Amino acid sequence: MSYDLRTRNGHNMYDMSSMLQKSIRRCNYELAGYAAMELFGRYWKYLWRRLIVISAEDCYGVITREIISLYYADIAANQDRKGYDRDPLFVAKAITLLCTAKKNRDACYFACNFMLPDRVLNEDEIEHIDITKCKLNDSVPEWVFDYHTYRGRANGKRDLDMVISEQEALTPKQISLFDNEDWSNYFEDRKRKGQVGPGEWNDFLKFKEQCEQKKKNC
Questions:
Q1: Domain residues for 40?
Q2: For residue 127, what pLDDT is reported?
Q3: Which pTM was predicted?
Q4: Does some domain include residue 52?
Q5: Contacts of the segment 80-87: beta carbons below 8 A, 24+ positions apart
Q6: Dihedral through CA 38, CA 43, CA 48, CA 53, nearest 10?
Q7: Contact 172, 27 (CB under 8 A)
Q8: SS3 107
Q9: CB burial of residue 72 (10 Å; 0-12, 13-18, 19+)
Q10: What gap in Å lies between CA 13 and CA 210, rounded to an integer?
Q11: What is the mean pLDDT of the chain?
Q12: Which of 2, 60, 133, 188 has the fewest Cβ atoms surrounding its Cβ within 10 A?
């Protein structure tokens, strides 16, 4: 099938992309490095796009500019090389920075809850302001296969599962603005669109109650 893209050792490309991002969230150098090398040869451009997304989605501060600088340095240093003939130094540097960066998912929460495509604000509601040696020891970890992978969905993984587990997995974790928020806007919008089943919705309501209790205890 057209989406069954494979890496050099036969892994699904999207699974390796998932492992890359989730390993970085957990500060797991070994698995992040392995996933990166799987993508490095054939999917080099995609790898850099994913690293840039990770820098914005999972990391605290302004590290994205560092990753973009490394991307351009990679282009300059490897301009006459292709595939695995490229020097992986710049990708390795980017992954090292991302693994050690303080983590939070404020940008992801903001995009999912405050930038809904069907949401329209009145003018008075808008605040106007200026504005190569890594290896896979055993098998791909199960946490790689979440709702955003084909295998994860086939195994019944849900969006809510990812929201909860990936928030808990952030390493090292930076205290965030939305740590105890419940993602209500996002899941209520998905429910209106018929994208949340009864079981997931009931679990979301329990999650929401837990978040409310955490805020009371703060």
A1: 13-100
A2: 59
A3: 0.79
A4: yes
A5: 83/41, 83/42, 83/44, 84/8, 84/40, 84/41, 86/40, 86/44
A6: -90
A7: yes
A8: helix
A9: exposed
A10: 36
A11: 92
A12: 2
pLDDT of residue 129: 47
**Tens-digit pLDDT profile for residues 207-216:** 999 999 998 8
CATH number at residue 42: 1.20.272
Amino acid at 170: L
Quick one: residue 163, left, alpha or beta (phi over 0 = left, psi -120 to 50 = alpha)? Answer: alpha
3-state secondary structure of 12: strand
pLDDT of residue 200: 98
At which residue do the structure tokens 């040869």 appear?
Answer: 41
Side-chain-side CA neighbours of 12 within 13 Å: the count stands at: 15
Amino acid at 146: D
Residue 23 resides in a domain? yes
Residue 73, domain member (yes or no): yes
Residue 204 near residue 63 (C-beta atoms within 8 A): no
pLDDT(161) > 90 = yes
Supply the DSSP symbol for 174.
P
> How many Å apart are CA 71 and CA 101, to the nearest integer?
18
In a domain, 28, yes or no: yes
Domain count, the chain: 1
Tally helices (H) and strands (E) across the chain. 10, 0
Give yes or no for a contact between 208 and 182, defined as CB atoms under 8 angstroms apart.
Answer: yes
Length of the chain: 218
Q: How many CA atoms lie within 13 A of 29 on its CB side?
A: 10
Q: What percent of the chain has pLDDT over 90?
A: 82
